[in-house]
Structure formats: C-alpha cells, structure tokens
Amino acid sequence: MQLAEVTGTLVATVKYEGLEGVRLLVVQPLDRDQHPAGDMVIAADAVDMAGPGELVYIVASREAALAMPEPFVPIDHAIVGIVDQVVRS
Amino acid sequence: MKLGRVSGTVVSTINHPIYDGRRLLMCDLLDSAGVDTGGYLICVDVVGAGSGETVLILDEGTGARQIVGDPNGPIRAVVVGIVDEVTLDGEAVDLD
C-alpha cells in the first residue's frame, strides 16, 4: 500500500459493466516524504468519501478490485483509506 | 518477501472495513546489505513491530488475505516478522 494525494475527479459515462456508480479520482502517488513520485493514476474510491486535496492510501493490482462491492471489476488502483496523520519516528 | 525498517505509523479513521482496528506501519525498504533503497510500503502489522525495527514484509495479496482471514480483503503488504539477523556470504549484515 502507498500514500497518494487526490488531485482531481474523473467522469466516464461509458464504462465496462460493474463500474457503474464507482467514483473515479485522479491521484498522485507520493514518496515517504509526501512528495510526488511517479505518474498520476486513476483510482476507484472504495471509501466513497475521498476528495481532491486529501491524503489517502491506495492499494494496487488485483487487490484494488477486491476493495469494490463487486470484486470482479477492471480496477487496478483503489483508495482504501483517508489518512489523518503520518507519524514518522 | 522484502526487508524493511519501521519508520512510522499511518493513522486513518475513514477506511475500508478490512483495516478497522489494524495498525498500519510506514516501512522503508532495505536492500540485501541493509541499506535504505529510498522506497517504502504501508504495511499492516500482525507481529507487534515497533519503530526502528528491521522487519520481514510480505508484499503479495493472497498470502496477506490468508493472514487477515478474509479471502476478499483489499490488502497486500503485511509485516510478518521482526528480523534478528541476516547473514550474506557468511557475514552478518549490519542492520542498524
């Protein structure tokens, strides 16, 4: 799992079956110091509450689809939590 | 599996239910010589690892789901061990 910042939203009217009603957000993966790392990705919002500007954690690959109500959907990144705080020690 | 060092925790109240009540650790990834690679993973802790400890990280979904006992959990990285020692070519790796 990895930190990311939600930077935008995405609307697609035509989607593969199973993706109806799934919120899609543009997210920027972050490094450990919360600086942008790599290319932005489109992630499904599995908590249904994330929005632009928020720090979240995402899960990638097969596990992303499992975060959705219907587990066999073509999703490769999902937001699985909104981060309140990262405590570095 | 990967070698990591616990560098902090992630606090989250709004999350997928599979993460309810679970500790999330920020783990910096190490190479075979115990040197920080610059990468990191957010991991679920199931062994009680603490800050600064060298840990064994499972980064594979099926095994992770087996550990948390949910065949459909969106979970992938889990701290599954606290490393005492690594030897490479007969020499102990400096993990501090």
List the helices and strands and how they pair.
The complex is a heterodimer of chains A (89) and B (96).
Chain A: E1 2-10, E2 24-29, E3 41-45, E4 55-60, H1 62-66, E5 77-82, E6 85-88
Chain B: E1 2-11, E2 14-15, E3 24-30, E4 36-45, E5 54-59, H1 61-68, E6 77-82, E7 87-88, E8 91-92
Parallel strand pairs in B: 4-6
Antiparallel strand pairs in B: 1-3, 1-5, 3-4, 5-6, 7-8
Written overview of the protein:
The complex is a heterodimer of chains A (89) and B (96). The radius of gyration of chain A is 13 Å and the shape is globular. The longest helix of chain A has 5 residues, at 62-66. Chain A has one helix and six strands; from the N terminus they run E-E-E-E-H-E-E. Chain A has a five-stranded mixed beta barrel with strand order 1-2-3-5-4. With 89 residues, chain A is mainly beta. Chain B is mostly beta strands. Chain B has a single domain (2-87), classed as EutN/Ccml (OB fold (Dihydrolipoamide Acetyltransferase, E2P)). Chain B has one helix and eight strands, in the order E-E-E-E-E-H-E-E-E. The A-B interface holds A 1-3, 31-32, 46-47, 49, 57, 59-67, 71, 78, 80-89 and B 6-16, 18-19, 24, 26, 28, 38, 40-43, 51-52, 61, 64-65, 72-77. Strand 5 (77-82) of chain A pairs antiparallel with strand 2 of chain B.
